Amino acid sequence: MQKFDSVLITGGAGYIGSVLTPKLINLGYKVRILDSLIYGDSGISKFVNEGSVELISEDIRKKEVLEKAVKGIDCIIHLAAIVGEPLCKKIPLAAKQINEEATSNLIQIAKKSVKRFVYASTCSNYGSSENIVNEESPVSSLSLYSETKVNSESKILSIRNENMESCILRFATAFGISPRMRFDLLLQEFIRDAWVNKKISIFGPNYWRPLVHVSDIANACSLILESKNEQVSHQIYNVGDDTQNFTKLQLAEMIKKYLPETEIEIIESKIDPRNYKVSFEKIKTKLDYKISTTVDDEIKEIVKRIKINDLDPRQSEFSNMSKMTEKVKTF
């Protein structure tokens, strides 16, 4: 039986949000989205138009907007953020305002009335480690993006409120087809380069990354909404699967299977500071979480869609960088 009625998804029109939104609608939730629509509304416009989603198209940095968005809401899934180190470096002040300050404001407002708060974080918080890391491992911010996530995690976990259960989800590197498509994520970037340039250039070829399909991220979010209090409250879960840890070179070689003309170039002069192989045993054991799509499955699907002209990886709309730098202003 569904425990809650209403969900606020911040960033609900984005890459993950536009996959999560229809899932929660189908599960019977009343869905409200708070999104500034910097990337447009193509992923959610159908649901807004048919009245199955309430959209608040405003900036998350405005406190009065947060008060309005949270009113009457049972649960919050907080996805809204400036995502990734390149973009955070490009607009660092706005990244701090959106990723940290707005999150702090949201959690303070939410704790007055919201029953469950789910925070979207990242496995990149683990930084660099020679060992397999889990939720008990120390975090190490090697980028502004990770710094904002680690700081926000600390603020959320510091709030002890018996009325609101908070849960942190550290997503593996996202991949896969979404209504709000991106080709500036690691796997899609490699596929784009293989298709457009016939070459994938890699630095840190033997450094590890865990990956998880965007639909499986959405599944994890919905699973948290439907789990028991003691499984959720003040818990951190890595979201992914142990079988989906790959080195960057392994990813390139998998893509080359489907695009055999691809040259793989190793760049020795550039260093990648991040290297983390992640355990997903906790979410599997405690919540019975299972993924539905592997990296190999999706490489095959994306390449197929590109070949039939259903996807064009060259379009600038598929990059967060091009959209964000044009539209985000500092307050």
Descriptors:
about 325 residues, alpha/beta, Rossmann fold, 3-stranded mixed sheet
Task: Please summarize what this structure is.
By secondary structure, this protein is α/β, with parallel strands linked by helices. 39% of the residues lie in helices and 20% in strands.
What does this structure look like?
Strand 1, helix 1 (17-26) and strand 2 (30-34) form a beta-alpha-beta unit. The model has no long low-confidence stretch (mean pLDDT 93). The protein starts with 5 loop residues before the first strand and ends with a helix. It has a domain at 6-176 and 211-243 and 278-293: NAD(P)-binding Rossmann-like Domain (Rossmann fold, 3-Layer(aba) Sandwich), CATH 3.40.50. Helix 1 (17-26) crosses helix 8, helix 7 crosses helix 10 (248-258) and helix 10 (248-258) crosses helix 12. By secondary structure, the chain is of the alpha/beta class. The strands form 4 sheets. Strands 3-2-1-4-5-7-11 form a 7-stranded parallel sheet, sandwiched between helices. Strands 8-10-12 form a 3-stranded mixed sheet. Strands 6-14 form a two-stranded parallel sheet. Helices cover 39% and strands 20% of the residues. It has helices at residues 17-26, 45-49, 63-70, 85-90, 92-110, 144-158, 186-196, 214-225, 229-232, 248-258, 281-287, 295-307, 320-327; strands at 6-10, 30-34, 53-56, 75-78, 116-122, 128-133, 165-171, 173-175, 199-202, 208-213, 235-239, 245-247, 263-266, 275-278.
Strand content: 15-25%
CATH superfamily of the domain at 6-176 and 211-243 and 278-293: NAD(P)-binding Rossmann-like Domain
Describe the strand arrangement of the main beta sheet, using strand numbers: 3-2-1-4-5-7-11
Number of E-state strands: 14
Structural class, from secondary structure content? alpha/beta
CATH class of the domain at 6-176 and 211-243 and 278-293: Alpha Beta
Instruction: Summarize the biggest pleated sheet.
Output: 7 strands, parallel
The ordered string of helix (H) and strand (E) elements is: EHEHEHEHHEEHEEHEEHHEEHEEHHH
Specify the helix fraction band: 25-40%
Low-confidence stretches: none
CATH architecture classification of the domain at 6-176 and 211-243 and 278-293: 3-Layer(aba) Sandwich
Our count of helices gives 13
Instruction: Return the CATH topology of the domain at 6-176 and 211-243 and 278-293.
Output: Rossmann fold
